[in-house]
Amino acid sequence: MRKSRYTDIQILAILKQNENGLPVPDLCREYGMSSAQFHKRRAKFDGMDVSIMKRFKVLEGENKRFKKMYAEERIKTEIREEALEGML
């Protein structure tokens, strides 16, 4: 998947410009994006501000770490179960 050329904070700034009255076609032309991309980003980031965005990123990182920990523990449990079955 292709990485966005703008950070989430930059996207929030672009959306804020639209809220302040700049028309969507002008913003799309200025930042080199399609109107579909603009509306998709507005749907994703609607109602967020920078502090919420930063907290969201922290929570995503924690969630990723917990999923990795769970996967590692699940593998250890499966190995233990296989070892116990081999003893019987």
UniProtKB/TrEMBL annotation:
A GO term for molecular function: transposase activity
Xref: Pfam families: HTH_Tnp_1
Domain of life: Bacteria
One GO term of the biological process aspect: DNA transposition
PANTHER family in UniProt: LOW CALCIUM RESPONSE LOCUS PROTEIN S, TRANSPOSASE
Similarity comment: family membership: Belongs to the transposase 8 family.
Name of the protein this chain belongs to: Transposase
Organism: Idiomarina fontislapidosi
Source species taxonomy: Bacteria, Pseudomonadati, Pseudomonadota, Gammaproteobacteria, Alteromonadales
